[in-house]
Amino acid sequence: MVHRGISTLLAYRQRAKKKSENQTLITIDFYNILLHGLAEKGSFERFNDIFNLIEEDKLSFNEQTFAAIFECLGRVETSEENIQQIKKYKEMAQDIGITLNQIMDRSMFTADQRDIALDAIRRIEPDFTPIYTPPVINYNNNLLNDLNESILPMDDISSNKVSSQTIRNVMQHKRAYSKAELEKMAREQLKIELDGSITIKSIESSSEFSNAEFCRGKLKELEEQWRTQINNALIRDLNTLRAQIRYKPNGFMNYYTYLKVLDPSIYTDILLKEIYKLAEGSETFSPTVGQLYKELGQKVQQRYQVEMKKKNGTLDKIGEIYNGYCDFWDEVNTSDNPRQIWQRLVHEHRISGPSMDIKYGSWPPNVLSGVGRFLHNILMRDIKIDVHILRKKGSSKQHNVLPAFYTLFRNQGRLVKEEVKPHPVLARLLRTSRQQTLVFDSSLVPMICPPQPWSTPNNGGYLLNKSDLIRLPHQAVQQWERINSTSPQQLYPALDSLNQLSSVAWRVNTDILDVIINVFQNGGDDKLDVPKPPSSLPPLPSIHEETPALTSAERSKRFKDKLAHRRKQAEMYSLWCDTLYRLSLANHYRDRVFWLPHNMDFRGRVYPIPPHLNHLGSDLARSMLVFDQMKPLGPDGFSWLKLHCINLTGLKKRDSVRERLLYAEEIMGEILDSADNPLTGNMWWTQSDEPWQTLACCMEIAKVYRSNNPEGFLSRFPIHQDGSCNGLQHYAALGRDEVGAKSVNLSPSPLPQDVYSAVAALVEKARKSDASNGIQVAQALESFVRRKVIKQTVMTTVYGVTRYGARLQIARQLKDIESFPKEWVWPASTYLTAKTFESLREMFTSTREIQDWFTECARLISGVCGQNVEWVTPLGLPVVQPYTRQEAKHTMRTSTRVSETMAMDMYEKPNVMKQKNAFPPNFIHSLDSSHMMLTSLYCEHKGLTFISVHDCYWTHACTVPDMNKICREQFVSLHSQPILENLSAFMKSKYSFRESDMLNDGSADDLSKRRLNRTLAEMPKKGDFDLRNVLESVYFFS
Fold this sequence. Notes:
Helix content is about 50%, strand content about 10%. With about 1050 residues, it is mainly alpha-helical.
C-alpha cells in the first residue's frame, strides 16, 4: 500500500505539472505519511527518493518528518553507519531550529513509533528524556474566567489530588460506584463496541409459530451457505478490482484501496446482519438503494476505525487512561472537571505509546457509497434461497434457487426511487423463526460506563466508536475548518458542557415502564400517544364483481383513498417501531445504570447521541428516565415535586405558585388514585398536557406522601424548569424591550405572564371585529381561537417558521378539535396565520427590528459577498450556516473508480433564501445554547445534577432553588455582554468592502456593496429594560 501511495502521489504531481496547476494541496503532511509507512518496514534506502521529491516541491521538513526519520533509523540494527545517520539528521534538525525535544513533543505517534524513535535518539544521547508541553486546561472567556480560580497548576497529575476542604470537589456529586465496579462496566462497554452491535429481547407480545424450530434449523443451514457464498464472492470481486488497479495508469484509483483494509470475515459478518435487517423490514417501506449504500459504507468505515485503534495501540492506552479516570469517579478529591482530569491523565501517559489526539478522518461520501455498493451487489447477486425451503416433505428432490432479494421502483412525489425487498419466502422464514430479539449498532445505544470526556474536537463520547462532535451534512466543511483553526481553549466551554451532560447517570423508571408496556402490548392508545400496530388499521372496503362500473371520479377517489390508506399504514408502522425500540431498550436497561454521551448541532444545541432511549423526545420518552443518583428531598423538595406535577398538567398556567400548590393539595386524592390505579382508577392523569410524565410524578408523590420522613426521602426524580417562550426572551433581552420583556416574564410579576394567551387575545379581538363585518371565516372561528391553537406558531415564529409552516401547524390543531367544522380547516388556518403574525409584530416591536436586521444582513452577505453567513457564539464556538445551492451531479452507479470531485460548501454558491430565513432563528438558538452551557457549567461547579432539553432545565427537587438562581444569573451575565455590537464588528471585519473595492460608477454592484457596509453597521436601537429584573422574576423559568 505504501508503494501504491507513492505512485499515486507521483501521478498527481505529474498531472499538476502538465496542467501548470498550483501544487499547494501537496504539503509536507502527505510526505510524512509515506515516510512513516516506509519507516514501519525499516526501508531507509527509499527515504532519499522521498527527500528528493520534497526538495523539488520546495517544502521544508517539520518535526513529524524527523520523527519518521528517527523511527526508521530506530528499526535498523545499531551500527556505526546507523549512529552517523542519526547524528546527521539531529544536526539537520538543529540547523532549521528544531530540537530533539520538539520532535518528540510536537509529533503524532501510533503503535510503537514513539518508543522506536526515542530509542534511536538515545543511541546518541543515552540520557535524553523528552519534556512534554502540558496542555492549557483553563478557560479564556469573560463569562467563565472566574471558574479558573479553583484550577490547580498543570505540573503533574498528583498536584491535583487534594484533601483540603477549601477545594471544591467537582466530582463528588457524580460518585456512586467503586473503581472496581466502574472498571467492570468499562470492560463490558469495550466488548460491546468491539462487537459492533448489541442484541436485546423485544417486548413485542406474539405467540410462537408451531414450525418455529424447523424454520430456525433451516435458517441456520442457510446462514452457513450464505457465509460461504459471500466469502467466495468477496474473493472474486476483490481480485477483479485488484486487476483493474494493476493494469490502469497510476492516477486510477478504485475502491480496492478501501476494501483491502479489513479481513473478508468482517465483511461477511456485516452482510449477514444486513440480510436479517432487510428481510425483517416493513411491507410498506423499504430504504432506497442509495441509503443502503451509504449505511453499509458507514458500517465498514466504523469497523475500520475500531480495527485501526486496536492495531495502533489506542485501545490499550484508552484502557490505561480510563483506569486512572475511574479513580476520580471513586475517591480522589479534585477541583477539576472531567475534561481537565482526562487532559492531565493523557499528559501523564505521553511518555510511551501512541498519541491520543490522532484525527481519524472520515471517508468521502462517494467512497462510502462506493464501498456500500460493492457489498450490496454481492447481496443482490450471490445471496440465494430455495423457494421450497419451507416444505417439510418431498423438499429434498425439488430445488428452485432464486435470488433472496429483488428491487422494485416506487413513486415518491415526482421521483422514482429504487428499493430493495426480500423474497417472500425469506421474509416468511424469518418471521416464523424469529427469536423475539432486536439488534442495535453499539453507537446507537446508551453507554454502561461514564463516557470519554470531550478533550479535543476529535475525541470524546464512546470509548472506541467515533462520535462526531458536531452534526453536519457531509458537504459542510467550512465549520470544521473554523473549529480546527481555533485555539483549543476557545472550544473548552462547549466541550465541558457536553461532558457535564454526558456525565449524568440515568436509570429507567420501572414503575412507569411497566404501565406503558402494558398499554403497548394491549394494542396501544392514540389518546395516550402509545402507537397502535398497523394491523389495527381497518382495511378499505373491497369492490365486489357485481358492483357496477365506477365513474372516473369514483376511480380517482378510490385511488386517493388507497394512497392515503398506505400512507397511514406506513406512518403507523414507523411510530409503532420507534416505540417498540424505545420500550425494548428501556426494558433491557431496566436494572442498570447507564450514561448518554452528547454532541451538538452546528449552532451549539446539544443532543444525546443514542437516538432511541434518551430524555430528549416525546412525553412518553421523558417519563421513562430518572437520575441514577438519589438525593434527600429536604425541606422544600416535596413542594417542588407537587408544583412540578401541576405544571405538567397545564391546568394552572395563569395561576401563581401558591395557587398551584393549593390546587395540588385539593386533588391529592386524584394524584394518589392515579399512582395506585393508573389504568383502572379515575385516570385523572390522562387529562394532562403531558400524561405520562404526570403519571410518573404522581407515583413519586405517592411514595413521598406515604413515607415517614418526607424531608429525608431519597428521590431520583428530575424536576423541570421551563423557559417562558425562550426565543422571545432572548430577543427581548437583546433589544432591552420593556413591553416584550414583561410579556415573557423577564420582569417580576405576582402572576405568570402568558405570551400565548396574550397573542390569542389580540387575535380574538381582531376576529370579533371581522366577524361583525360579515367575514365568514371569522364567524366560523367563534369560540375556537384558543391558546393551544396558536401556541406552536407563536413559539416557532421566533425560530423562523414561514407562513406556510405556520398554516400547517394551526391546521393540525384545528383538525384535533372534534367540534370544529372540517371544511373550514384550511381557510381558517390561513386566516389565523395572518392574524397571529400581525399580533406578534404589534406586541414585539424590538424583536421585529432585530429579526429584520438579521435577515437583511444575511441576505446581503450571501447575495452580494457570495459567502455563507458565519459568527462566533458568546462562548467561542464558530458557527457557519451550511446552506448552499448544490447542483445535482449524476454519478454512475456501476463505476468502480473513485470520483475525484465531491460537494463542499466552500466551493458552492450559498442558497440566499435559506441563508436569510435561517440566520435569525439560528443566531437565537446559538444564544439559548450558550445560556444553557453557562448554567450547566456553573451548576457542575456548585455540585448540582443538571440536564437540559434545550430550554427546559432538569435537576433534583432539593436543588431547584440553586439551579434557578444560577440560571437567572447566567442569563443576565450573557446578555450583559455586547452581543449585537460584537456580531456587527465581526461581520464588518469579515464581509464589508474596502473603499478600494468600490468602482464609484453608480452601478448596481457598487450600490449593493455600499448598502452591505451600511447595513452591517446599523444595529437596531435598544430600549431601557433593566436586565437585573430577571434575577427577581419567579416565572422567568418555572
